Amino acid sequence: MSFFQSFRLALQSIFSSKVRALLTMLGIIIGVAAVIVIVGLGNGMQNFMTDSFESMGTNLITVTVVGRGTARSVSDDDMYELAQENPALLSAVSPTVSSGAQLKIGTETPSTSVTGVGEDYADIRQYEVGQGRFLRYVDVLRRQKVCVIGSYVSNEYFDGGGVGETIKIGGYTYTVIGVLKEKADSGEYGDDNVALIPYTNAVKLSNSGQISSYYFSAASEDVITQAKAAIEERLEKAFGSDTAYSVISMSELLDIMDDMLNVMITILAAIAAISLVVGGIGIMNIMLVSVSERTREIGIRKSLGARQRDIMQQFVIEAATTSGIGGVIGIGFGYLLSSLATKLIVALLQQDMAVTPTAGSIAMAFGISVAIGILFGYLPAKKAARLNPIDALRYE
Amino acid sequence: MAPLIEFRNVYKIYRMGDTEVHAVDGISMTIERGEFVAIVGQSGSGKSTCMNIIGCLDVPTAGQYLLAGQDVGRLDDDDLAAIRNRMLGFIFQQYNLLPKMSVLENVEASLVYAGVPRAERDARAKKTLARVGLADKLKNKPAQLSGGQQQRVSIARALAGNPSVILADEPTGALDSRTGREVLALLQDLHREGNTIVLITHDNSIARKAERIIRLEDGRIIYDGPADAERAVVQAEGGQDG
């Protein structure tokens, strides 16, 4: 009997008892849908993370100087010098100082963080100036009381404008000289709720009175590792130890996060795949019942000249078709759940994250479900194939 | 040319606990091409076991069964299946049609296993269905037909593979007497067309429609000869008449 014939028989048998077939498939449907949603969720998280890291700049290298109690230290000049000496590796540098100072606009005190930065900060963090201008070297050098605000601050307090207005930072009056373009979503919790002032001013406002971190921009993605090494070398020389500072590149961080996510997704998908196995056992169960119900049919087929492998093929293909159809339904179901989950995430978390099933996970889920059908169909099929035709014909 | 069916001292012995049951107890016989033979006997006489052996559903415990000169006892399951497919056509008491398949598909089933291409399958199945007078029922399911019609479908199915032997096991057992007679008449027609038919029955009046009767009792042949002489011989030997 040809494969096609067996397939037709399988469809005939499945469609003649639809409810039973659907119940049989249920385990596979749930398993496949679960695998697809989980892999889709992981994929969505990865995309989301990559996007947010890219908006920070994947070429970004952050240097944090931890307190160390020795007289040894590095100054902002050292860091600028480092960048100038290695133009092939480092394209820009900016000290960053969290001032901790309170921002006051009129009588209001927004939650905005006031950060002291250098004139290259906008380039490093990929901010664009919407109105006015960014900080300049001269502002930093002369400690001008000027500031650049993010789009959230501009929208909330200056109706989208703000250049020329004055605000108070730590009791000093600052003039707004620029408004940044929207970078994230102009929300309160993100890169758009900022006020940037010359770092030379911020240092004075901060408690420690020291610059504790620097942002470097690597010249290109290809030299991130070398750039990082160059920075580390310089700091090591300055401090004489490697515990007083940490150097982290965003791309490294992204890789680490990616690896962690992948491990997590694999474990979750494996757990979901357990339900595929349970589904397979369900198929085996029903196929065994089906074989004893159809003992007479098997006897008739054998009397007509069906060989063991004809019967075997018929039942294995029926099991594989059942679980294959279950797999297809599961894929559809998984897609539905994914788009629902996407809507839910957007509605509840206000994050622009899409649950995106991957083609690979779909192909894998379908392949596994068919394979499970063959695997768990084998035993019942073997039982059917080995039936004695005389007993089978006499079976009531 | 070797006889179509030849039993050489065939035994079929079942073991039930400590006792041995000789279902077939040393039978030798030959059936030639073109014969219409009835194997008749009470239940427990061994006629069903005989049919199973002739039909290659079972193999002898001892002795030889040669089908067209080939010793069937040495063959494995799949070889037996191939012989059933090529050389044998079964007609059962309970029709044994596949309920989910149409009449046409039922008749085609053995041709599917023989690997006959679809177009030829269709043509042959339609031809045999026309032969038994069911050309208008191709698409029906067996349950939509009367008992007599279902039995005719099963005859068509037996014929479709062009078998060397048609084995009919109590073909009228489930039918009323009128449709039973029609089915028997059809078998007689098929015999006249040159088919070899082996009929298994417990009913003497049905057995007498055949040309030759082989009467079994306790696994042994007690009569083997022309149907019209059987009654006298059996009565003379003190056997009972059904």
| Rg over alpha carbons of chain A | 33 Å
Helix content of chain A: 55-70%
Helix content of chain B: 25-40%
What can be said about the biggest beta sheet of chain B? 6 strands, mixed
Index terms:
heterodimer; A: about 400 residues; alpha+beta; eleven-stranded mixed beta sheet; 13 helices; 11 strands; about 15% strand; B: about 240 residues; alpha/beta; six-stranded mixed beta sheet; 8 helices; 10 strands; about 35% helix; about 25% strand
How would you concisely characterize the structure shown here?
The complex is a heterodimer of chains A (396) and B (242). With 396 residues, chain A is of the alpha+beta class. Chain A has 13 helices and eleven strands.
Secondary-structure map with pairings?
The complex is a heterodimer of chains A (396) and B (242).
Chain A: H1 3-16, H2 18-56, E1 60-65, H3 76-85, E2 90-98, E3 103-104, E4 113-117, H4 121-125, E5 129-132, H5 137-142, E6 146-149, H6 151-158, E7 166-169, E8 172-180, E9 194-198, H7 199-205, E10 213-218, H8 224-239, E11 245-249, H9 250-293, H10 295-303, H11 308-349, H12 359-385, H13 389-394
Parallel strand pairs in A: 4-9, 6-8
Antiparallel strand pairs in A: 1-10, 1-11, 2-4, 2-10, 3-7, 5-8, 6-9, 7-8
Helix pairs in contact in A: 1-11, 2-9, 2-11, 2-12, 9-11, 9-12, 11-12
Chain B: E1 5-16, E2 19-31, E3 36-40, H1 47-54, E4 62-67, E5 70-71, H2 77-87, E6 88-91, H3 103-113, H4 118-131, H5 147-160, E7 165-169, H6 177-192, E8 196-201, H7 204-207, E9 212-217, E10 220-226, H8 227-236
Parallel strand pairs in B: 3-8, 3-9, 6-7, 7-8
Antiparallel strand pairs in B: 1-2, 1-4, 4-5, 9-10
Characterization of the model:
The complex is a heterodimer of chains A (396) and B (242). Chain A has 396 residues and is α+β, with helices and mostly antiparallel strands. Helices cover 59% and strands 15% of the residues of chain A. In chain B, helix 3 runs parallel beside helix 5 and helix 5 packs parallel to helix 6. In chain B, the strands form two sheets. In chain B, strands 6-7-8-3-9-10 form a six-stranded mixed β-sheet, sandwiched between helices. Chain B is 36% helix and 27% strand. Chain B is an alpha/beta fold and 242 residues long. Chain B is globular and about 50 Å long. In chain B, strand 4 and strand 5 form a beta hairpin. The longest helix of chain B has 16 residues.
